[in-house]
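Hi support team,

I submitted a single chain yesterday and got back a structure, but I'm not sure I'm reading the token output correctly. Could someone confirm the output below corresponds to the sequence I sent? I've pasted both exactly as they appear in my results page.

Thanks,
R.
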Amino acid sequence: MEYFVDEHSIVRKIWGKADTILFIFAGAAAEFSLNKAVDWLYYTGKLPADPLGRLFSTVAYSRQIIFSERDEALQAIDRITAIHRSVETSRGTQIPDWAYRDVLFLLIDLSISSYELLERPLTLLEKAQTFAVFKRVGTRMQLTGLPATYSEYLDMRREHLRQNLIKSELTVDLYHQYRRHLGAARYQVLKQAQLLVVQPEIRNHLRLNTIPWLRPVLWGYKFLKLLRLNAFLRNALLPVAYKSQIVSLDS
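Hi R., thanks for writing in. Yes, this is the structure output for that exact sequence:
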């Protein structure tokens, strides 16, 4: 049986834990809001109506690809491509390739930063493996201008962060929706999680609180992991509507 991602790959370890995926989710929520192409996510109306569900579906699709057999993963990627093509046809214009690349780039970046926050530093080889997996996704989607190496990706990532982020009215509206759907307490936890995993450019645009009070909480959380009590705390912080879906991400 051939899997899209090797069974021993670090990417499976990263995406096999609900804790890590939650931080990837949080970071994606921040960066999506600032992307200059965020209007595409507003076009169908699904993002403002259900921002958590829309973002969760993006993360869930990524996870499905990572843990599927090769042919099933390729079919899932093709479905994603077809969905985007349908939206493009409806709007009468194309999503720019840089916007697609931005999504791949943020998934690579957040996979690494979230795992390192919760587990351990990754080696250069492990980071390159993470890049290689998502590059294969982009290649299957027939994206142009993908970097050839992890080093080239880092340069392109920095350039994308400089060029493709802007705080707009849609940014403000999206954060309003986050707060409305999460409630005040969970909303503050979301912003703290973002503070710990996103790039400095994103923190500056969003003016996130510079006091990371969640970090000492994570130290206690790691201790609870040793006692296998961490799931109790994590689940208590999750919105009821998504709790079962997120808990099921533990593999």
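A quick pointer for reading it: The chain has one domain: 10-247. Let us know if anything else looks off.

Best,
Support desk
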